[in-house]
């Protein structure tokens, strides 16, 4: 077995006939905590969607745990251990917190009925709100619910699209701490698309920067220089 968990080799992908990603190469190792940075519209969301199978890869290959999954449908990728927490969180507003969590079981293909207690160790707040409608939670609480739902299928890797967007600072800190714990204690690999550079620096050890559908820089977050930030990230 190789060290790499996920590899994108020369990936081109997009919407219909319109390519958005061009020849993307990316290697993510087991246990990595990675941030994916770039200005609006450069293709970050499309990259995550291509990994989980919501955008078709027209050229190149996607390898997960040494298996070529380029043509696998989304549900199969979930069962193999890829969890996707989309931008906007996609909590079902009229379902209870408990039922929103249970949706995570369907992604795993298991028919279990009990929420594992570790979910509430990571997110004690959810336990107090189980019967409430998901839509009544604050934005930050909904984000925590979305991450918890992703954890329900025992993922090997979690893909998060702007988890801190529109969330108050105290909860941002909580989310950062929880993601770090999930990474360290459970060994789950994490890729986070992020606009907030300071948050990305604190959270992740490694970074990738995208521009116009390609990866233009990568390294340790300690090497994320001001010149890279000015060139590719500030508006
Ligand atoms: N459903 C769609 N159909 C066609 N083109 C799309 C669609 N969604 C996004 N695009 C285009 O794909 C490109 C990349 O968008 P994407 O959302 O991946 O970028 P992003 O880096 O995640 O930006 P943001 O930070 O704004 O989410 C943009 O030019 C966008 O207009």
UniProtKB/TrEMBL annotation:
Presence of the UniProt keyword Protein transport in the record: no
- Keywords annotated in UniProt: Amino-acid transport, ATP-binding, Nucleotide-binding, Transport
Q: Which GO terms describe its molecular function?
A: ATP binding; ATP hydrolysis activity; branched-chain amino acid transmembrane transporter activity
Q: Name one GO biological process term.
A: L-amino acid transport
* Alphabetized PROSITE patterns for the sequence: ABC_TRANSPORTER_2
Q: Where is the ABC transporter domain?
A: 6-235
**SUPFAM superfamilies recorded:** P-loop containing nucleoside triphosphate hydrolases
Known CDD domains for this protein?
A: ABC_TM1139_LivF_branched
InterPro entries (alphabetical): AAA+_ATPase, ABC_transporter-like_ATP-bd, ABC_transptr_urea_ATP-bd_UrtE, BCAA_Transport_ATP-bd_LivF, P-loop_NTPase
Origin: domain of life: Bacteria
For the keyword Lipoprotein, the answer is no
| Family membership | Belongs to the ABC transporter superfamily.
Which PANTHER family did the record assign? Answer: HIGH-AFFINITY BRANCHED-CHAIN AMINO ACID TRANSPORT ATP-BINDING PROTEIN (PTHR43820:SF5), HIGH-AFFINITY BRANCHED-CHAIN AMINO ACID TRANSPORT ATP-BINDING PROTEIN LIVF (PTHR43820)
The name this protein goes by in its record: Putative branched chain amino acid ABC transporter, ATP-binding protein
Organism lineage string: Bacteria, Bacillati, Cyanobacteriota, Cyanophyceae, Pleurocapsales
């Amino acid at each position: 077995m190789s060290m790499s968990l996920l590899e994108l080799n020369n990936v081109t992908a997009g919407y219909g006939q319109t390519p958005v990603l061009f020849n993307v190469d990316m290697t993510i190792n087991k246990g990595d905590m990675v941030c994916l940075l770039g200005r609006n519209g450069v293709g970050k969301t499309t990259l995550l969607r291509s990994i989980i199978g919501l955008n078709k890869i027209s050229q190149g290959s996607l390898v997960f745990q040494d298996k070529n999954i380029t043509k696998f449908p989304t549900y199969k990728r979930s069962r193999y251990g890829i969890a996707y927490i989309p931008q906007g969180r996609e909590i079902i507003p009229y379902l209870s917190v408990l039922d929103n969590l249970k949706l995570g079981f369907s992604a795993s293909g298991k028919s279990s009925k009990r929420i594992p207690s570790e979910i509430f160790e990571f997110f004690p707040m959810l336990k107090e709100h189980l019967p409430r409608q998901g839509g009544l939670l604050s934005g930050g609480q909904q984000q925590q619910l979305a991450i918890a739902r992703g954890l329900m299928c025992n993922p090997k890797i979690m893909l998060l699209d702007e988890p801190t967007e529109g969330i108050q600072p105290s909860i941002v800190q909580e989310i950062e701490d929880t993601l770090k714990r999930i990474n360290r204690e459970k060994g789950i690999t994490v890729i986070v698309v992020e606009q907030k550079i300071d948050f990305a620096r604190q959270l992740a050890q490694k970074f990738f920067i995208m521009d116009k559908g390609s990866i233009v820089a990568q390294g340790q977050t300690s090497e994320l220089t001001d010149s890279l930030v000015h060139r590719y990230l500030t508006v």
